[in-house]
Amino acid sequence: MEIILSIAIGVMTFCGVWLILRPRTYQVIVGLSLLAYAVNLFIFSVGGVKTNVPPVLVDGTATASLADPVPQALVLTAIVIGFATTALFLVVLLASRGLTGSDHVDGRSDPS
Amino acid sequence: MFALLIAGIGLLVVIYARYYMSEEDSVPRFFSFLLAFMGAMMGIVLSGNVILLSIFWELTSIFSFLLISYWHNSSAARDGARMALTVTGIGGFCLLVGLLLLGNIVGSYDLDKILEAGDVIRAHSLYVPALVFVLLGALTKSAQFPFHFWLPNAMAAPTPVSAYLHSATMVKAGVFLLARMSPALSGSYEWFILVGAAGMITLLLGAYFAMFQQDLKGLLAYSTISHLGLITTLLSLGSPLATVAAIFHMLNHATFKASLFMAAGIIDHETGTRDMRKLSGLFRFMPITGTLAMVASAAMAGVPLLNGFLSKEMFFAEAVETHADSFLDRILPYVATLAGAFSVAYSLRFIHTVFFGPKPVGLPKEKPHEPPHWMLFPIELLVVACLVVGVIPAIAVGPILQAAAMGVLGPDTPEYSLSIWHGFNLPLVMSIVALVAGALIYILLRNYLAQCKDGAPVFRRFRGQRIFERILVEVSWRWARLAERRIGTRKLQPQLRWVVFTGFVAGLLPLWLSGFEPRPFVFSGVDKAFAAIWLIGICLALGTAFLAKYHRLAALVMLGGVGLIVCVTFVWLSAPDLAITQLLVEIITTVLILLGLRWLPKRNEINDAPITVRARLRRFRDLALAVFCGVGMTFISYAVMTMPVPDAIATYFLENAYSQGGGRNVVNVILVDFRGFDTFGEIAVLGVVALTVYALLRRFRPADDTMAMPEQQRAQNRFDEERPDRSAGDTARDYMLIPSVIMQWLFPVIIMFAVYLFLRGHDMPGGGFSAGLTLSLAFLLQYLAGGTRWAEDRIRILPLRWMGAGLLTAALTGIGAWAFGYPFLTSHFQYVELPLVGKMPAATALLFDLGVFSLVVGSTVLIMVALAHQSIRINRLRAIDAAKTKET
C-alpha cells in the first residue's frame, strides 16, 4: 500500500515540477494541478494509511482505530483552495493571452 | 517628572502655535500630529514593558517625520524629515534588537524585572551587543555624535515643532532611555567608554558648531546637541549624583531651550528672517521678547541665579571628581570648561547680534513689533520658571526632582543639596573661567562672525549630511540596482526554478544533517487492485506532462483521470469526505478549464522554431530537477507512511468531537467548530478569488486569433445553411438534446442531493463544502444543457448575493457566541426532532456550515458564469470590431 502511494506521489511531483518549469502557461496550470494532487496525498498520508476503518464516530469503536481526521480536514480545505487558485490562474492566463497574444509565461517568447 | 514635562510644555506649545501658524497652513493636521506625538511620547515614558516602549519609540519617529515635513512643499523640510526618519528609524530598530536581547537575557520583558537584573545582564556574554544596540537607539534619537547631523536639518520644521520635539521631548527620549536603563546597563567600562566618548565629543563639537551658525534655529539646534551631550556625559559617569544632575539638567534645558525656540520663532515671524547677519537692534522694537530671550539665554550660558547655572555647577562638580582612571576622565574637566565657554559665547552672540546694535536694514518684513500677548505667554511662563528654579531651587523643584531621581535610581538615590551657594569651590571657579573665557571668545570672534559663511571653520567641509546622503544613494540606489541586475530576473521560469531548487535543498539539508536513511522498500502485501489503479494513474500523469504542450484537450482529460484516481484513493483509504470533495472539485475544474480552452487556440507543432542546444540543456536541467524532486518525495513519503504515527492532536479531536461539537463526522466538526476560524478565513479567500476572477473577466478581451467562431460551430452552421429547411443555429441547439433533457430533469434531484449532503454533514460524510459544490454543479449543468441564454431566462442566480449572505451568516454565527459571553465562533448544539426527517443535530455550527455552503455556491457559480459569459460578450466585441473596420 505505502510503497504504491509513495511512488505515485513521487511520479506526480516529478510531472508537476517538470510542467511548472515549462514556458507555456497551460503547462504551468496543469503542472500546478498535478503538484496539488501530490501534496494533498502526501499531507493525507501523514495521518497514516488505513484501509477499512470507520471515518465517522461509531459507538463502541476505540478512537485509535479511526482514520486520522486532522490531515483530512487540512486536505479538504486544500482541495477547495486549490480549485480557487486554479480558477484564478486560468483567468489570469486568459487575460494575459488576450493582452499579449502569446501564451508564454512571460508574455513573450523571445528571450530578450 | 517627564510626563509633567511633556504635558506642560505641550500645552504651552499648543498655545504658542495657535498664533504662530499662518492662515494658509492646515491647522487641524498640525495639531493632530502634535497631539499624537505627545501621546506617543507619554507612552515612552510611562510604559512598563520594553516592547511597548519600543513601539512608542517608533511612533515618535513617525510623528516627528510628519511634523518636520509639515510644510511639505519645501524640499528642505522633506529632506530633513527623511533624514530624521532614516536615522531615528534605524536607531529604533537597533533599540528593538537591543531590548529583545535584554529581554532574552533576563527572561522577561518587564522593565522592572530588567532593571532589577542589572548584575545578571552585566555578567552575561551578550551584554556588549545588547548595550551597543540600545546605545545606538538612544544616541540616534538624542542626536549624539556621530548621528548629530539630523537635528539641524530637522529645523526646517515649524518652530513650535522645534520647540517641542527638539528641545523638550523627542531628543530627550534618548537620554531618558539612557537614564532609565542606567541601573541595568551602566557601571561597566564599556558603558563609560561608549557613552562618555559620544557625550563628550558631542558636548564639545555641538558647542563649537553652535558659535558659527548664522541661522537662529541652527544655533539653537547645535546648542541643543551640545546640551544633550552634556547630559549623556553625566549619565556615562554612572554615579548616582551624576544621574541626578542629568535629570535636573534635562528639566532645565527643556525650559530654557523651549522658550528660546519660541523666541526665535517670534523673531522669524515678525521679521521674516532668521539670518543673524541681517538681524540687529531688535530690542527697540520688541523689548519684552528681548528681555525674555536674554534671561533664557543667560540660563543657557549658565549665569548664576538661573536654573542652567545650578545643573551646570553639578556637572562641573561631577566632572572634577575622578571616577575611573582613564584618559577620558582626566580630560573631562577641561572639556567641560571649554564647552561651557563656548556656550557662553554663543549665548552672548544670540542676544547681542539680534537685539543690540544698529537698526536692521533690508528685512523681509518692515516694522517688526511685539507679537500678541498669548504668543508671549508661554515664554514668560518658562522664563519665570527658569528664574524661580534658579533662585529658590529647593522649594521650586526639589520634590519633583526627588520623585524623578527615585524613579530612576530607586532606593540608591543619594543625598544632594539644591542651592545657589555651595561656597567658593572648584566648580565655581570653572564657572567663572567659562563665563570670562566665553565673553572673550565672543569679543575676539565678533567681527569674523558677522560676515562669515554658515558653519564652523575647518569642519565646514566635513558635513554629516553629505556623508549620510552619499551612503543613502550608495545603498538604496547603486547597490540595489547592482543586486537587481546581478541576481534579478523578470522571467518567470528562472524564478520558479530557483524556488523549486531552494525548496529541494531546504528539504534535503535537514534530512542530510540528521542522518536520514531511506527505508527499504517492502513490496510484499501490496493490494493488486490498488497497484493496478495507480499504474493507470502514473501513466495518466506522465501522459499529462507529455501532452500538455500541444494536445491540451488530451492533457486535460488525462488530468481528470489522475484526479479520479486520487479520488478513488481517498475512498480506499477511509476518507469519504475527501473523496466527495475531490470528485466535485474535479468536475468543476475540468469544466472550468474546458471553458477556458475555448480561448486558447490549438498550438501548431510545425510552426515552432527548431530546438537549440541551449534550450536542450535547459530542458535537461529542468528534467534533472524534476527527477530529484520526484525521487525525494517518494523517499520522504514512504518514510513518513511507514513510521508509526505519533499520538498527536488527532486523539483529542476524536474524543471531543461528539461531546463538544455534537457531531460524529470529525472532519466536519473540525472544519466548522474546532477550527472554525480557519474555515472562516478560507471561505473569505474563496470569495476574494471569485471576485477577482469576475473583475478580471469584466475587461477581458480575447486574443485576436480566438475571436472567430470555433471550428465546430462553423461546420454546424454550414450544414444548416446548405439545407433549405433548417435555419442557422439549429444543429448547435439540437445536437446535445438528449443529454440536456436528462440534465434538466436531474436539476431537482441534484438540489435534493445537495441538501442531503448538507444536512447529514455533521454526522456523516458531507457538509457545507461538498453541498455547495454540488449545488453549483446543478446550476452549471443547466448552463451546459441549454446554453447561457436559455439558463438565464429561466433561473436568476445572484452569485454575489449568495456570497454576501454566506459570509455574513458565517460571521454572524461567530459573533452570536459573543452575546452569550463566549469567544468568537464558539458553537452550541442540541438535537431537535423535525417532522419527517427525524432526529437531527442542530448545532450553531450548522448555521456556520450554511454560511460556508452559501459562499461556496456563490463563488463557484460566479467564476463559472463569468467565464461562460465571454461567449456572449464576444458577439458584442465582434460587432464593435466590425463597426471599426467599416469606419476605416
3D structure, described in words:
The complex is a heterodimer of chains A (112) and B (888). Chain A contains 3 helices and no strands. Chain A is mainly alpha-helical and 112 residues long. Chain A has one domain: Helix Hairpins (Orthogonal Bundle). Chain B is mainly alpha-helical. Chain B is 74% helix and 1% strand. Chain B has a two-stranded antiparallel ribbon with strand order 1-2. The chains are: A mainly alpha (112), B mainly alpha (888). The interface between A and B is large, with 85 and 111 residues. Chain A: Belongs to the CPA3 antiporters (TC 2.A.63) subunit C family. Chain A: This is Multicomponent K+:H+ antiporter subunit C.
Q: Tell me roughly what share of residues is in helical segments of chain A.
A: 55-70%
* Mass-distribution shape of chain A: elongated
CATH class value of chain A: Mainly Alpha
Overall mean pLDDT of chain B: 80
Q: Calculate the terminal CA-CA distance of chain A, rounded to whole Å.
A: 49 Å
Q: How many β strands of chain A by DSSP?
A: 0
N-to-C SSE string of chain A, H for helix and E for strand: HHH
What is the count of DSSP helices of chain A, taking H or I runs of 4+ residues? 3
Calculate the mean pLDDT score of chain A and round it.
Answer: 83
Radius of gyration of chain B: 39 Å
> Domains counted in the coordinates of chain A: how many?
1
* DSSP strand tally of chain B: 2
User: Beta fraction of the residues of chain A?
Assistant: under 5%
